[in-house]
Design a protein that fits this description.
This protein is of the alpha/beta class. It is built from eight helices and twelve strands. The longest helix has 24 residues.
């Protein structure tokens, strides 16, 4: 079952914040209403939200500044809710990274529909990102079961593809030989598994080198396992 979307509503007019929270809550969303930008930032530091609805005209820190601060650390969809309907204000909002702009007084059904639309787009984007793993010049498309290096297709066996996928998910960080074996083979790690993984890593390196021999894309993390470089550049160690 898909978890309920978590929404943060920020408006210094409590009646409006509570109304929006009630409308979205009736749609099965988990909504937190707060009445100032400073409080919103504190909540965002402690909790995860899927979408934010920010008023613009708030005392102290306004919605524009709140949006700027949130965008520095998060890409969640942001919807501005404001009595200011001038085109210039909307342009500023979108320039700062907002995803939508709803003017007050708003129609409840329209607000709910826009929020749902933004959540759908965000989830679709997250799913697409999850299906395609990128690590430097290496790209692994999990859904299409294809891998490329510098845009050139890699002809991989199923086990080689599985190993590369696991490495790509942790690009830049080492993955233990045990995790590679158990993840790719689905079997319990034993004494012979390390050699099996090493042979497949060697074949993977050969196929990568056939496209670009200037970089060791899969490095050995001595005493741990292997890691896939997450940036272009030469260097690395052999198995």
């Amino acid at each position: 079952m898909e978890r309920a979307a978590r929404i943060l509503v920020v408006d210094d007019e409590r009646a409006i914040a509570d109304l929006v929270a009630s409308l979205l809550g009736a749609e099965g969303m988990e909504v937190r209403a707060c009445y100032g930008a400073a409080q919103a930032l504190q909540l965002l530091e402690r909790e995860r939200y899927d979408l934010g609805i920010f008023d613009i005209m708030m005392p102290g820190m306004d919605g524009f500044e709140l949006c700027t601060r949130v965008r520095a650390v998060s890409d969640i969809p942001i919807v501005f809710l404001s009595a200011k309907d001038e085109e210039a204000d909307q342009v500023v909002g979108f320039t700062l990274g907002a995803d939508d702009y709803v003017t007050k007084p708003f129609k409840p059904r329209e607000l709910v529909a826009r929020v749902k639309a933004r959540l759908r787009r965000a989830r679709a984007g997250a799913q697409a990102t999850a299906d395609v793993l990128r690590a430097g010049a290496v790209e692994v498309d999990l859904r299409a079961h294809k891998a490329t290096l510098l845009g050139e297709p890699l002809q991989l066996t199923p086990k080689e593809f599985a190993i590369l996928s696991i490495l790509a998910k942790s690009a830049g960080s080492p993955v233990s030989t045990r995790d590679l074996f158990e993840g790719a083979w689905g079997e319990r790690y034993d004494d012979a598994a390390a050699n099996t993984v090493m042979v497949h890593i060697r074949h993977l390196r050969q196929k990568l080198a056939a496209i670009d021999s200037s970089t060791q894309f899969i490095e050995t993390a001595w005493g741990v396992g292997y890691k896939l470089r997450d940036a272009l550049g030469a260097g690395g160690h052999g198995a």
